[in-house]
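User: Before I run my own analysis I want an independent prediction to cross-check against. Here's the chain; please return only the structure tokens and, at the end, one sentence I can use as a sanity check.
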Amino acid sequence: MQAAVRIVTKVLPGNKIEVEVPDGSVGAEVEVIVVLSQTIPTGDEMF
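Assistant: Structure tokens:
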């Protein structure tokens, strides 16, 4: 059975995120998908 955990976090300095998963997950393979909540402007959109 596949379980999903939704975690909301903030981007840390150095463009990193930190995620903590439930106990008993050590060694488990996980898939991480990052969805940015806002559109980040590209160089063309900034002017």
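Sanity check: The chain is about 0% helix and 0% strand.
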